[in-house]
Amino acid sequence: MRAVLFDLEGTLVETAYEWSREAVNELRRGTKDKLIGLGVPEEALMGLVRSTLLRNRAHEWVEASLSQAESAMFRAELDTFMKPIEMGNARSARLYPDTLEALEGLSARGVEMGLVTNTSRGAADYVLGNLGLGGFFRVVVTRDDAPRLKPDPSMLRAAVAEMGVAAGWLVGDSVFDAEAARGAGLRSIIARRNGVRPSFRHDRFVDSLNCVASIVLED
Q: What is the DSSP letter of 34?
C-alpha cells in the first residue's frame, strides 16, 4: 500500500502568511516577545527569526532549565498565546486550485494520506472542515501531538506510526518540510506553483499537486 504525507499551509491551502509579509513579521516579533516575557533568555534565541525555530529553541531551553510543573505552565501559556493567532490564520485559508483534484486523484488510486502541520489541532480541524478536506486524511498530526515543530522530524514519525503503513514521501513547500522529511527517513516533494525550483536540498520538485500521484505511484 502506498502512502504519502502532506503539509497544510502553503501546500494544500493558501493563508495570510503566504500573501502578507506584514503578517509574517508580526508573528515573528510577537513570538519572540512572548517567549522572552515567559522567561526565555534573549541570548537563548540569538540568531533566530522564524516563529517555528524560536519556539523549538524555547522548548529546548525549558526542558533543560525548568521543572516539570514549570514546563507545563510554560507550554500552557504559550498555547494560549498561539491559538488565537493560528485560528485567525485558519480563517483566512483558501484552497489552491489544484488541491481537490490532486487529493481526489490520489484517493482514487488507493494512496493513503496523512497530514502534518505546525498549526494547532483546532486550527487544522477548522481548515479541513471549512474547506472540505477532512475526509482525505487517515491521520492528522498537529503541533499538539509532537514535542517539536517541523523541521524537527518528530511530527512525521508520529504520523507514520499512527498510519501503520510506510509513507515514503512528504509533500510540502518549505525548507522545513524538506528537512523534516530527511530527518524522518522520507523523501520530499516540494511544490511551488510559480515554477521556481527552491535552492534548498529536496528530492523532487513540482509546480502543481497534480504531479504528485505520478511520483508516488512510480515507486
A: H
